[in-house]
């Protein structure tokens, strides 16, 4: 079909004919389910902006955790520019939030440590002198995979506590990496690629828990429906880019965020404004959200980017542009705005991640209110409230 770019075909196949169910997590487990549709969310819509310029539902509050090029409160550590992908990790009775820096040459990643009451107890560097660190993902063994977004970019495995030195993982491929998500059941790591004709990959380490060796595979098929995987012949040193080494590899228009839960890997593509759902148990690829497949009202989610989820099965999708919102796609199949930033029109929302207990949501405005390309005005936020489990 040339596959997945032909929206007219997909509208007829998914909406007119009834979608193939996406199993493993959200509403798609019900037969005949269609991609998420607008509706009322579990918290009500965002109210007026608070003192931090964040519009939130009733019962939720925000605070600023860090600002680019300024010391993180009480630590003396200067927060990096252009904060991007992030994740949270348990740390005794507290937790750690890590964040990438999407700038050339000195990108890397930093971390903020929190006590059990949410107070900041430290901030520090966990990765140095890497380039354009965009998104990434957490591993089940407690490390952060920081992904470089350029043609020969690599994945770096880092220690959120800042104790162990970061290590490059070239076996995971050299390409324009975006995000990663670990699947502990099949013992693989899924990877997105931010190219207009990019691919979706999985890495099978020789030994689970050791990413230094293994096999990189690419998703192959003709569009939504059954798919297979094929080995990428030369993932590290190549004359032909990884995305062009396997005939029949599925193409995606700008791979972005990636999140695994309950046998399903959800990933976003910005060129067609979609959230995809790969059911790893059945090897079926389907569409969880597409603004062109909204059948009633106005599509609330545009400019899809980073994605995360809750233990209860809700997805939270950040916007790059759009209305500068984080939208929730509920487990009931409703897509609706959760929060919105005011005065950040030249920015994008990045790095959404929940604290280990699910009570706090962290995210950044990469360029803040200044809109400066290198992100020197970036702001990292925390939202606290009655998130449902």
TrEMBL record:
It holds the Pfam family PhoX. InterPro entries: PhoX (IPR008557), TAT_signal (IPR006311), WD40/YVTN_repeat-like_dom_sf (IPR015943). PROSITE patterns: TAT (PS51318). SUPFAM superfamilies: Calcium-dependent phosphotriesterase. PANTHER family: DUF839 DOMAIN-CONTAINING PROTEIN (PTHR35399:SF2), SLR8030 PROTEIN (PTHR35399). This is Uncharacterized protein DUF839. It comes from Actinocorallia herbida.
């Amino acid at each position: 079909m040339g596959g997945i770019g032909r929206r007219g075909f997909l509208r007829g196949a998914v909406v007119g004919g009834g979608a193939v169910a996406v199993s493993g997590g959200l509403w798609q487990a019900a037969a005949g389910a269609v991609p998420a549709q607008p509706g009322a969310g579990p918290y009500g819509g965002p109210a007026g902006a608070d003192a931090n310029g964040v519009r939130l539902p009733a019962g939720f509050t925000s605070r600023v955790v860090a600002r680019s090029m300024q010391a993180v409160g009480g630590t003396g550590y200067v927060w990096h520019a252009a904060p991007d992908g992030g994740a949270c990790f348990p740390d005794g009775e507290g937790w750690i939030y890590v964040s990438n820096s999407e700038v050339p040459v000195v990108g890397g990643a930093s971390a903020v440590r929190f006590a059990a009451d949410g107070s900041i107890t430290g901030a520090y560097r966990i990765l140095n002198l890497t380039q354009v660190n965009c998104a990434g993902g957490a591993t089940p063994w407690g490390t952060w995979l920081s992904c470089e977004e350029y043609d020969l970019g690599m994945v770096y495995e880092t220690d959120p506590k800042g104790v162990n030195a970061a290590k490059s993982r070239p076996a995971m491929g050299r390409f324009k990496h975006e995000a990663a998500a670990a699947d502990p059941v099949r013992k693989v790591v899924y990877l997105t690629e931010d190219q207009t004709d990019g691919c979706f990959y999985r890495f099978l380490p020789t030994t689970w828990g050791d990413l230094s060796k293994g096999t990189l595979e690419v998703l192959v098929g003709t569009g939504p429906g059954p798919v297979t995987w094929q080995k990428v012949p030369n993932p590290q040193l190549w004359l032909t880019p990884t995305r062009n080494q396997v005939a029949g590899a599925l193409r995606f228009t700008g791979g972005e965020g990636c999140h695994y839960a309950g046998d399903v890997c959800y990933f976003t593509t910005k060129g067609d404004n979609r959230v995809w759902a790969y059911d790893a148990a059945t090897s079926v690829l389907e569409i969880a959200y597409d603004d062109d497949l909204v059948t009633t009202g106005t599509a609330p989610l545009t400019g899809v980017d980073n994605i995360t989820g809750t233990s209860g099965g809700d997805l939270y999708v950040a916007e790059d542009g759009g209305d500068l919102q984080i939208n929730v796609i509920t487990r009931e199949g409703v897509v609706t705005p959760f929060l919105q930033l005011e005065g950040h029109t030249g920015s994008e929302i990045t790095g959404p991640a929940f604290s280990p207990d699910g009570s706090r949501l962290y995210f950044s405005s990469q360029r803040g209110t200044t809109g400066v390309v290198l992100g020197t005005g970036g702001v990292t936020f925390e939202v606290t409230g009655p998130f449902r489990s």
